[in-house]
Amino acid sequence: MDLLLKNIGLLATPTGTAAVSGAEQKNIKLIENAMVGVKDRNISYVGTFEPFLSADNTIDCEGALVTPGLVDAHTHLVFGGWRQNEFPLKLAGVPYLEILRQGGGILNTVNATRSESEDNLIAKGKNLLDEMLCHGTTTVECKSGYGLNLETELKQLRVTHKLGSTHPVDTVATFMGAHAVAGEYSDNREAYIRLLCDEIMPAVADEGIAEFCDIFCELSVFSPDESRMILTRAAESGFKLKIHADEINPIGGAELSSEMGCISAEHLIESSDEGIRAMAEKNVIAVLLPTTSFYLGKPYARARTMVKEGVAVAVATDFNPGSSPNLNLQLSMNLACLNYRLTPSEVLTAVTLNAAAAINRAETIGSIEPGKKADLVIWNAPDLDMIFYRFGSNQVKTVIKNGICYQNKGEV
Ligand code: IZC
Ligand code: ZN
Fold first, then answer.
1. Which CATH architecture has domain 3-68+365-407?
2. Ligand 1 centre distance from Cα of residue 35 (Å)
3. What residues line ligand 1, using a CB cutoff of 6 Å?
4. Using CA positions, which residue lies closest to atom 2 of ligand 1?
5. Local confidence band at 408 (pLDDT 50, 70, 90 cut-offs)
6. Verdict on whether the full-model pTM lies above 0.70
7. Which CATH architecture is the domain 71-358 placed in?
């Protein structure tokens, strides 16, 4: 064995290789006085104290809580600039979609991303991933959608891959050329949709640098009919489908996610009862983003209804420069308990196994079980309630990613 974690006060993990829903979502495995062994970067032993186990390296967890590494299943990680210049507008009450209609918001970040060099985007992304890692995140989904032209969409996706291959944190790439209509096509949205489907999407598919295709289905962004058409083309090109659904207005995004067989639908703040039931029927995973509700001053998605109806719930940060400039998944976990009224064990599943399933990684990450990757968090806490009860400071002590230990920012 390469590494042995001993003296784990409490090990808490969901189990399995698929999303769990309904009453199952709270059923996590708890082992007191546990040990975890790592061999070849994978978990090789999980169980109670075993006096005869030994390894090249040992970590004494000193009675701490250990969970799987956190999986952030929804971010817009790679972008140029920030949007602090829009903060006064936001404080003055100008709505998110109004800022976008005025040519700001996403389009502001598109300009900044187009003019940023690949090297600078990599350097910035690396710093952001460092910060995520020390907050416990070991895998991150990253969406493009700040290029809205061929060159910059490819640039964002290539940066996502370079980050994943050079940084300890794993990245998973999603193509989101349907994030907004590019500014130069504001008078001719049909032409942008043609460019997207006939040029950008095939080029991204040819290069094989994105696994998923996502779309911002929203009033004055992409209608349900446009979304259906674009997602159909994406499925034909081999992408698995995701959708930003019912974030601000209830326009049938949840229903569409079910109709299109999306792997996940995200946001769902305004989703209808029928939409939620339709998602349950087709096993669409709900990726909920509580810091976005917080930051936009919007209602919170109806997570309890989703659990009751049998929808598997994941929780992510939505890290982006507009509606959620927060990359600390622990804050999303606090809000998921306090505002969604999910229990700590339901939320643990939401940020590990169900998040992994939402990015098609549940076979390899998302739980502490033999054969899965050795992605673990050792907390400055003795039990699960503690990490949800406290908020506002980083409660991670050590992160183990791919069998390597990271304390704060350095390798130990
Ligand atoms: O940059 O505003 N909602 N897309 C849809 C976002 C938020 C990201 C942004
Ligand atoms: Zn988003």
1. Roll (2.30)
2. 41
3. 76, 105-106, 109, 216, 244, 247, 320-323
4. 322
5. low
6. yes
7. Alpha-Beta Barrel (3.20)
